[in-house]
Structures are given as structure tokens and as C-alpha cells.
User: Fold this.
Amino acid sequence: MEKSQLIEELRLILGAEKVLTDEEAVLEAGKDYIGFRIYERTDGKNFAPRAACVVKPANTEEVSKVMKFLNENKIDAVPRTGGSSVTQSIEPVPGGVIIDGSAMNEILKIDEINMTVTVRCGTPLEYLENVLNEKGYSAGHFPQSLPMAHIGGLVATRSIGQFSTLYGGIEDLVVGLEAVLADGEIIRVKNVPRRSCGPDLRHLFIGSEGMLGFITEVTVKIFKYRPEERWLQAYAVKDMQTGLDMIRAIMSDGYKPAVVRLHDTAEVQLLLKLEDAVPPEHALLMFIADGPASVAKATGAAIEEYAAQFGVTGLGEKPVLSWLKTRNDECYHMERRGYHAMGLVVDTCEISAEWSEIGGVYSAVIKRLSEEIEYLAYAGGHASHSYMQGTNIYFTFAFLARNVELVKDDYMRVVGVILEETLKRGGSIAHHHGSGKYRTSWMPREHGTSYPLLYKLKDALDPNHILNKGVLLSEVSLRETSAETCPKAGRFQNAPPDFFRVQVDKE
Ligand SMILES: Cc1cc2nc3c(=O)[nH]c(=O)nc-3n(C[C@H](O)[C@H](O)[C@H](O)COP(=O)(O)OP(=O)(O)OC[C@H]3O[C@@H](n4cnc5c(N)ncnc54)[C@H](O)[C@@H]3O)c2cc1C
Assistant:
């Protein structure tokens, strides 16, 4: 369909004011915050593909009408809400349509009996948290992008917050949801505390990155808000492995501090700027215990005992208070002009692995980056989301961009080291930012023999493959391809059970 006709038809469905065609608005809506794209933009170039237009539906029925039309005409569509993606996940297919849910911004019901809140997908998380706080509640979800992200995107990416050790990730918080499928069908998964009626259908959408449907409404849990009853404390640790061992002991014994963070020396100096508060060459461990005062106090007392046992040095509350104050500042400096003036690309990459492997991932990555990446300026990392079974490492890095043409390849070399070392040790290559479009080629190795299931789900829920092409799946459908027509996709069809393991070993 011609672009002009597409825009005309969408105007007829939604009204002209909900179809944006202005060059700047269209570019802005498909722009995310992955490091090399920020570099391109500050260098005056923007290689990101452009959509034909952006539509801003006001309610579920309008989303449904738009999706039905796009599906019937096989037109590509990318859902977005807050636009804080860092994985190229909202970059459109050229000539496609961005469905922007940010106008669907409404708190529908705060249910104090059942401890839930129901919101439309475009509700900003920070606004929701502020409204809940005024009533004595919290959503318990504190990603660093709190000032930027909206509920739809937070659910679609399987996001996680800084207080996750107590509250969990978004998958632990979503009670029910409403979504629109590619053909316009509206479905709802009702709110219940738990059920045993087949697979959990919420999970078709939690983490689906906009490729299985458009999330229109979400019900999440709420918690009592008691920041004044908190316990907090920081410790200096002689190395990362000692810090990881102490966290493992605390977690596996069943304690649930809300915040558990272990930053390496590089981050203490360059990221947190706490070099005066932490002894040289030491890592920094920070804890916050939340909940009713008695629980927070007991958790704190237990952590003090582990600290004595592991011989770590108490640093008081100050480093934690400093982190609490500055923790979301990054959101206000996203274009990072200071770094780019120096020709630096700055970004992060978060992975997870079991306790037995995570220390190995961390040390191998830091060693390889410093040995192999000749243009590397800095590499560091922290663990910030811990479980009984393991933890994440959020690698932070900066490199000197050679020029704008090479910046993506140079970026992928850095990220490639992190992902390879993680896969070698059986970890996951995306702890909470999602696959987006830049990690898609790694997904077969991430998912192994279960990867074809994702293609089957895609074929069932979005048979014309209009939704967010390129995230999680390469662009071809298993059903439609054979080894002859598309060796890459066809090879999965009759893959022997050890196919994926063999691939990993070979590479
Ligand atoms: C400074 C900074 C800090 C960050 N910190 C964290 C962090 O601590 N924890 C964390 O988890 N993430 C973090 N992120 C990443 C990002 O904020 C999250 O991925 C967030 O969940 C994205 O929400 P959004 O509303 O901005 O989604 P968008 O960027 O608009 O979209 C993200 C993805 O979700 C899909 N999507 C959006 N809305 C819908 C919808 N209604 N229906 C279906 N699919 C949809 C899109 O297609 C895309 O695939 C950070 C990002 C930045 C820039």
C-alpha cells in the first residue's frame, strides 16, 4: 500500500489528530537508547529506520481497529509506550507503523482490599508510584528508568526494579492483563491470586517485546509503603568473588533484603564516584531491608552476622544514601553529550548465571575485554538482582568510537565477548533488557531446543508476522520455510536433540 493511502486509511479509523506524520515525531518515536545509536545521533547522523507514521490510539477498541486493518493489509507494526528501550526494540520496519500507547495513560482502579492497581498501558511508572505513595502504597517496581518507562513496555520487556530481591521482577507483579492480538481480537487474563488451569497465559505477553500482541491494560500488585522503617548498610569487600559468596550465603539461607548490590572497583570509582568512601582496590556491597520494621530489623541483624563471618568492613549508611539519591540520574542525561564530545560510546549489558558460574563469567569478561578490545576505555560490572539460584552481572563499558561507520561493529565486538562468556557457562544473555533487535542472532543459542516454540507461538498469534519484526526471532517463519529456501530457519525443523548444544560448543 502506498504511504499516502496508508495514512489516509488510518486517519479514517482514528481521526487525523491521532496519526502523526511529522518527520521529527516519526523519528523520535522509533528512537531508543542503545549506545551506538546515541553515538550516531550525537555525530549528526541517524541510521535508524523510519516508519511511515505513528498512531496514538486512545483506548483498547482503537488499538483493535488499527491492528485489524494493519493485519488485513500485512503492514508492519511496532508497539511502544515509554520509548526507554535500550535494545533497538522500538526501531520500526521502514514504511511500517508505530503504535504508540502513551496516550492510554490512566489509573483505572486502586483496589485496597485485594492489593492491586489496574492501569492502562501508557501509564508512566513514576506517576503511578507517586499516586500510590500518597495513599500509603507502592508498586514495588523501581527500574532505573522509572522516570521514563510506561506499564505496557515494562511488562513487554520482562523488566526488573532495583528492589527486586524483595518484590521480584514484573513477572512476579502482574496479576492480570488485557491485550489485543494481531488480528484485532481483544483477550483478557483475569485477576486471581493463583490458578491451576493450564499454562499461565499472562506469560505469552510478559517479555514478548511487542511481537505477540499489544498490551492495553495491566493489573499489578501493590504493597504497603514504609520507607521510614528501612534498614541500610554498606560494606567494603576485598574482591568480587567474596562479595558474590556473601550474597549467595544470605540468599540461600532464605533472607530477602530489598536491595542487594555489589559494585566492582572500576564502578566504585568511575560510576558511583565513591572512591573516597571505599578503600582502594575494594568492591562495594550495599543492602537495604524493607518491610514492616521488625522484618527489616531482623534482616539487617542477620546481614551484620554474615558481614562478620566474611570479614568485610562496615562503611555505614552513607554510600547507600548516596546511591539512593543519584540512582536514576542517568535518565536525565541520556544523550550523554559529555562522553560523546570525547568520542566515547557508553553502555551496559546485563546477563545472569547460576552461583557456580557467575564469578567465572565476570572475571572472564573483564579479562577478555581488557586484553582484546584495543579501543576499550573502561569496563566494570555489578550484581544487582540476586536469587537463591544465582545472580545477574550488569556490565558497564565505554569505548572510543573510531568513526560512525564502524561504531555498531565495534559495539557488537564488546557485547559479543559478554554474551559468549555467558553462554559458555550456561547463563542467560539478557537478564532484563530483553532481546530487542540486536541480540536476536544469539537467541538460538540462548533458547536451545526450545527456540522453535517461539516460532510456533508467533505463527499462531501473529500469522502474518506484522508485529515487531526482528525482535527475538529472525524474520522468517519455521512453518513457511524449509532447509532449501532458508537454511537458517529450516535447520531447526528436524534438528536432533543435541543440535543446539553442538552449535554452542563449535562456536
Ligand atoms: C537509563 C535507563 C535505565 C534503565 N533501567 C532499567 C532497569 O533498571 N530495569 C529494566 O528492566 N529496564 C531498564 N531499562 C530499559 C527500559 O526502561 C525497559 O526495557 C522498560 O521496560 C521499557 O519500557 P517502555 O515503556 O519505555 O517501553 P518501550 O521502549 O516503549 O518498548 C520496549 C519494548 O516493549 C514493547 N512494547 C511497548 N509497549 C507495548 C505494549 N503496550 N504492548 C506490547 N508491547 C509493547 C515494544 O515493542 C518494545 O519491544 C532502562 C533504560 C534506560 C534508558
Summary: Residues 227-327 form a domain with the Alpha-Beta Plaits fold (CATH 3.30.70.3450). The radius of gyration is 23 Å. Residues 33, 78-86, 89-90, 101, 121, 143-145, 148-150, 152-154, 156-157, 159-160, 209-210, 214-215, 330-331, 432-433, 468, 471 surround flavin-adenine dinucleotide (CB under 6 Å).
